[in-house]
Amino acid sequence: MWNSLFNGFGQVNRGELMAARDGDGWIECTCGSKHWGKHGAAGILLIRNGEILLQHRAPWVHNGDTWGIPGGARDSHESIVEAAIREAVEETGINPEDLIPLTTFTDDHGIWSYSTVIAVASNKLEAHELNDESHEVRWVTFDQVERLPLHPSFAKSWPSLRLAATDAIERAI
Fold it and tell me: How far apart are CA 40 and CA 107, in angstroms?
């Protein structure tokens, strides 16, 4: 388990990752859907050299056999950045020291939300299928993303996420 916790964007606090996992569970949303994460959910859109890291979800998970970003339920004590990075570490084995969070994008449903941390990955960042939730992880160009069978929520958010990512990168340069 990694010992660095991100507090805000790019600021690292040293400490132990809290063990409490109180976010797992379904929410009946006002939009008529069920969403994973009692306290909302978070994921990370990692960008490197004009590509993003996508995860091919295993068939047995909710909306399985689709592509999306690493992510999952937020626990009550976690910030958006902490949750997104924890999920990416659990699912892809990345080293959080090899990324820089730039901004967040939130799909807010009122009683539930999914927040995406948009981050730049260094060339040192390595990712792989770490658990049985993933079939594969792959770097995909922005233009190739929509050619894959996408997780329905990610597909719906992708046009706005792409704009937010492009804007965040331009501001960071």
Answer: 10
Distances (CA, A) of 38 to 21, 24, 170: 11, 6, 34
Q: Which domain CATH number covers 167?
A: 3.90.79.10
Q: Exposure of 117 by Cβ count < 10 A (0-12 exposed, 13-18 middle, 19+ buried)?
A: buried
**Residue 34, number of CB atoms within 10 A of its CB:** 11
Instruction: Please give the tally of structural domains in the chain.
Output: 1
Residue 8: inside a domain, yes or no? Answer: no
Q: How far is CA 73 from the centre of its chain?
A: 10
Measured CA to CA, the distance from residue 50 to residue 45 in angstroms comes to 12
Q: What is the pTM (predicted TM-score) of this model?
A: 0.84
- Asked if residues 136 and 56 have their Cβ atoms less than 8 Å apart, the reply is yes
CA distance 120 to 53: 11
Helices (H), the chain: 80-92, 152-172
Q: What is the pLDDT along the chain (173 residues), one digit of tens a residue?
A: 333 344 444 443 433 444 568 887 888 878 878 877 788 889 999 999 999 999 998 888 888 889 999 999 899 899 999 999 999 999 999 999 999 999 999 888 888 888 999 999 999 999 987 777 788 999 999 999 999 999 999 999 999 999 999 999 988 87
